[in-house]
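batch_manifest entry 22 of 60
target: Peptidoglycan-binding protein CsiV
source organism: Luteolibacter rhizosphaerae
requested by: lab member K.T.
priority: normal
notes from requester: please return tokens only, no post-processing; we will run our own comparison against the previous entry in this batch. if the run fails, retry once and flag.
--- input ---
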Amino acid sequence: MKTPAFFLALAAAGSAFAETPITDRITPEQMAALQGAPSPFDALKKQQQQAEKEANVSRPDSQSLIKQSEILHDGTHWTMVPKGAVLHTPAQMSPRVGTKPLGTLLSWEDFLIANRGWIQTEEVTFDQAAGKAPLQEARQEFWKNQTKVIVAVHLGGPISVKVTPPATPAVTSK
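--- output ---
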């Protein structure tokens, strides 16, 4: 008999701590009055202008993301880097650069991870990418001996590099 007494005491204690139920209910008339009242967003709605028709966006036919990019592919997957981002392509890797996209498009990060065996990145500064500072001659000589495709990156992302032609020494006549 101790068990039912315990449950009765527990129920009594629980009801003592329970919140009072909400008894105020809104009437349909009050709801209609609230719905008809001006909203703080009404002023914003009045300021918005309705578009008469959809905006007509015109792009030149020559503007294409793929036309402005260099395609790298491994036969199964492909990715795009900006034109000018590929700094060096060895002869044996030329079929993997600049061809039509084949397979599945991957992000640069995923493609680089999957193809570290034949792609190497070269971190460049923003000034080097803009052509304001030259690329290091020693690095360019180093690339000539590499069997990997060298891609210019800035902060980990591919970036096109404006290559300035080497200055030719002035010939002085005597």
